[in-house]
Amino acid sequence: MLRVAKNGAKQWVQRITIRGKRCEIGLGSPPAVSLAAARKQALENRGKAMLGGDPLADKRKAREGMTFSDAVDKCLSAKLSEFRNEKHRKQWRSTLDTYAAPVLGQKLVSEIMVQDVLRVLDPIWMEKTETASRLRGRIESVLSWATVAGHRSGDNPARWKGNLSEILPKPAKVAKGNNQPALALADVSRWWVDLGQRDGMAARALEFLALTAARSGEVRGMTWDEIDTGTSATPATSATRAVWTISASRMKNGRPHRVPLTPEAVALLASLPRLNGSPNVFFAPRGGVLSDMSISAVMRRMQAAQEKQGNEGYLDPASKRPAVPHGLRSSFRQWAAERGYPRDMAEIALAHFIGSEVERAYQRSDMLDRRRDMMTAWASFLRGEAARPDNVVKVAAF
Question: Could you give the percent of the chain with pLDDT greater than 70?
Answer without folding.
Answer: 86
